[in-house]
Amino acid sequence: MENLGVTPAPNAAQVEAARQLDVRRRLREVEEAILARAPEHHIQPSLDRITAVMELLGDPQRTFPVIHLTGTNGKSSTTRIIEAILRELGLKTGRFTSPHLHSMRERIALSGKPIDAERFLAAYDEVIPFVEMVDARSVAAGGPRMTYFEVIVAVAYAAFADAPVDVAVVEVGLGGAWDATNVIDAPVSVLLPIDIDHRHFLGDTVEAIAGEKVGIIKPDAMTVLAAQGHDVVTDLVRERAEQVGARVVAEEADFAVTEREVAVGGQVLTVTGLAATYADLFVPLHGAHQAHNVAAAIAAVEAFVGGGERALDIDVLRAALADVSSPGRLEIVRRSPTVIVDAAHNPHGALALREALTDSFAFTRTIGLLAILADKDATEMLEILEPVFDEVVVTRTTSARAMPPRELGELAADIFGEHRVHVVADLPDALDRAAELADADGGVGGGVIATGSVTTAAEVRALLGVLDT
């Protein structure tokens, strides 16, 4: 039959392929637009802008209850543990964490999975007209546009409301009182160990930092207080709780890790919670700090579902914990030699890493692969890690904030001695060099520990083809 010039209609597969191509294009555009805003480490200490956007949206963050977490380290892991337990209880969950490893969509999870591109775009399209209105008002008054982090928070809360979720588990970005996530009235708050970090934003003392973080404690809420290394933190938490009429349940006094045994692939715990004792809990996470995160997570869920007076089903709890993960936190991403990535980025995190390596691993040679941001206390981190590393390879990530390798190498040489320090300019080459050192002299059982920042963990994961979160 003669072709009359009529173009055949696209079939369903072609239509779907075109639609997916458009989604990917739009996603790139939206991500670029968000990234063009002030980065999250340039905080603007005010809730006015995020509050205004939420009000214009109809306050979606008030349509679901929240468990809100702060602290210096352990927030992401504990957030994921809490959310895993809640999902195993049959609840539809939202999870907000930061920073991300590979994609900003990791920060917003629905029922345990990063939000898909189409839902992310729908939430962004819902909030962006109001973000632009608030931007215009703020700029006209001589203020800034909304930051990257403020926009992501708005998108997350809109997505959780649209899902809808039964409960959201939300990790603060920085601090507490002025953090953009803090436009909620969470019935349960969790304060993990608080120490020195982000001095230029939060203050130079533990007291100043804790004073900012206790701002997430809300009236009539239950506050889960993890064991603290500083009495001033406990004092400030109890003072804030008394001011707003919140109840505090504290580790050791009200809940605790009562037994702990290192096991293949993780550890086995007995945790005394607020309402019961839970034995034989296998958790595929390494380090005593993760055991304490589990205890805080159990107490938080007990507080949420029964006011701390109703025991959790042990089979539900065991199933949830056995399936929990925390990407980038003492995570094994390769074997032979073993490569572990850990997002320790401050002295408190470095200390937890050192203790976990001593506790849970027995490498014949342990090589540190270190890339640290210039605004962190690299000297103290190096001093903490020196006893557990036979040699170190210092390098840099692609972050604009990364400390130059030569500078980091000079600091490391003062602490480790020049014969134990190798400076390699680029991370891919540095990873290869670290692997060679781990296998030196034909040894078997060597390990590489890539650490120093979240970016270090993320970029090593990507180099080894591990992109799932």
Give the quaternary arrangement of the chains.
single chain
- Report the end-to-end length measured between terminal Cα atoms: 54 Å
Secondary structural class = alpha/beta
Radius of gyration from CA coordinates: 23 Å
How would you characterize the largest beta sheet?
8 strands, mixed
Question: Taking strands numbered 1, 2, ... along the chain, how are they ordered across the largest sheet?
Answer: 4-3-2-5-1-6-7-8
Q: Into which percentage range does the β-strand content fall?
A: 15-25%
Mean pLDDT: 94
The number of helical segments is 15
Low-confidence stretches: none
Tell me the number of strands. 17
How much helix is in the residues? 40-55%
Structural write-up:
This protein has helices at residues 12-35, 48-57, 75-88, 117-140, 148-162, 199-202, 206-213, 231-244, 288-306, 314-322, 347-360, 378-385, 405-416, 427-438, 454-463, and strands at residues 66-70, 93-96, 108-110, 113-114, 167-171, 188-191, 222-225, 247-250, 256-263, 266-272, 277-283, 331-334, 338-341, 366-370, 391-394, 421-423, 447-451. It is an alpha/beta fold and 469 residues long. The strands form three sheets. It has an eight-stranded mixed sheet with strand order 4-3-2-5-1-6-7-8, sandwiched between helices. A hairpin with a 3-residue loop joins strand 12 (331-334) and strand 13. It is globular and about 65 Å long.
